[in-house]
Write a structure and sequence with these properties.
Blueprint (H helix, E strand, L loop, with lengths): L3 H17 L5 E11 L5 H7 L2 H5 L4 H17 L11 E3 L6 E6 L2 E13 L2 E10 L5
Antiparallel strand pairs: 1-5, 2-3, 3-4, 4-5
Length: 134
């Protein structure tokens, strides 16, 4: 069961990440995705994961979690009209909390967090403006 406590913990984590940024950082968007009771096949992974992300994602549970991460990131991007999920790169796909960026802009930084729910995952992402890590 998805608890209010779990959601609050993840939102607090992401807000803490924003506060750690410098004065030049700004919140530009928030996205959320939840998927339960479904699976994602390896055959469609190539449409939403980069090659390096695919290499680390061979089981259906991991694919579903990464799907929710990419969806949350997509929803957090206010300029997503001409973008697809594969345009976003996770810096470390095996991490349940992490950072990502758009291939189109090194200035856009996404911070995400995932939690496991009944039969799936909830991912939350925030978009900030700030230089991408080297």
């Amino acid at each position: 069961m998805l608890s209010e406590q779990a959601i609050s913990t993840e939102v607090a984590y992401l807000m803490g990440r924003l506060k750690q940024g410098d004065a030049k950082s700004a919140l530009l968007g928030i996205g959320l995705d939840i998927e339960t009771g479904r699976s994602v096949s390896l055959q469609i992974a190539r449409f939403f994961l980069t090659e390096s992300e695919q290499a680390d994602s061979q089981d259906q549970r991991t694919l579903l979690r990464l799907w929710t991460v990419k969806e949350a990131i997509f929803k957090a991007d206010p300029e997503n009209d001409d973008r697809i999920l594969g345009d976003y790169v996770l810096e470390n796909p095996s991490h349940w909390r992490g950072t990502a960026y758009s291939r189109r802009s090194k200035l856009l930084r996404f911070h995400y967090s995932s939690i496991e729910v009944d039969d799936g995952f909830l991912s939350i992402a925030v978009l900030t403006k700030g230089e991408r890590d080297a």
